[in-house]
């Protein structure tokens, strides 16, 4: 039996019967009370491997819309970011944004910026060729869920074919 330390408090994860260890989705062990405090303090990824703890695709879509509200300054519009997705573990080049870079494989924002560079002329980034304006699904009204967000369509952060999140 291997000794497992809680990565948050650095104490043995399975030695206290009143604070049992649990496993995060990435299979790292942590005390339940430590995980609760960690999540309540705003952390959303494993402190060891940085994989998301309970990712919400609706939150990713909201964040994508928020980024479209703040376009990049002209001198940065043709910048490319090389990122590592902490969730699907893929490296890729994506359209750069100061406030977040979206994985074109899993559509999450849990990425680590590796480098930036100027975009080459006629360069097509991974995922761009499949991007088209999101088609409204049958029964959905245009703009549903976007009442306060009057932004122009920038499909570089949109994912196609998924339902919009429910109205709050």
Structural commentary:
The protein has 168 residues and is α+β, with helices and mostly antiparallel strands. It is 13% helix and 15% strand. It has helices spanning 32-40, 57-69, and strands spanning 21-23, 29-31, 79-85, 91-95, 111-118. The strands form 2 sheets. A 3-stranded antiparallel beta sheet has the order 4-3-5, with no helix packed on it. It has a two-stranded antiparallel ribbon with strand order 1-2. Strand 3 and strand 4 (91-95) form a beta hairpin. The termini are far apart. 21% of the residues are buried. Residues 130-168 have low confidence and may be disordered.
What's the shape? elongated
The residue ranges in which pLDDT falls below 50 over 5 or more consecutive positions are: 130-168
Strand content: 15-25%
Specify Rg, calculated over alpha carbons.
19 Å
For the biggest sheet, the summary is: 3 strands, antiparallel
Helix/sheet category: alpha+beta
Helix content: 10-25%
Question: What is the helix tally?
Answer: 2
Count of beta strands:
5
Average pLDDT number: 77
Q: Largest beta sheet: what is the strand line-up?
A: 4-3-5
Taking the alpha carbons of the first and last residues, their distance comes to 47 Å
Helix-strand topology string: EEHHEEE
Name the features.
2 helices; 15% strand; disordered C terminus; 168 residues; alpha+beta; two-stranded antiparallel sheet; three-stranded antiparallel sheet
Topology:
Elements: E1 21-23, E2 29-31, H1 32-40, H2 57-69, E3 79-85, E4 91-95, E5 111-118
Antiparallel strand pairs: 1-2, 3-4, 3-5
């Amino acid at each position: 039996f291997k000794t497992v330390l809680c990565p948050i408090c650095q104490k043995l994860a399975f030695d206290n019967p009143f604070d049992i260890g649990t496993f995060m989705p990435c299979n790292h062990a942590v005390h339940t009370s430590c995980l609760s405090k960690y999540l309540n303090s705003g952390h959303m990824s494993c402190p060891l491997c940085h994989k998301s703890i309970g990712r919400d695709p609706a939150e990713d879509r909201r964040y994508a819309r928020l980024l479209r509200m703040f376009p990049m300054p002209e001198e940065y519009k043709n910048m490319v970011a090389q990122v590592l997705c902490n969730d699907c573990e893929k490296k890729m080049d994506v359209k750069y944004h100061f406030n977040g870079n979206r994985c074109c494989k899993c559509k999450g924002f849990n990425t680590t910026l590796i480098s930036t560079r100027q975009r080459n002329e006629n360069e097509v980034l991974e995922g761009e060729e499949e991007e088209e304006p999101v088609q409204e699904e049958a029964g959905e009204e245009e703009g549903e869920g976007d009442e306060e967000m009057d932004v122009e369509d920038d499909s570089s952060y949109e994912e196609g074919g998924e339902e919009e999140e429910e109205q709050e």
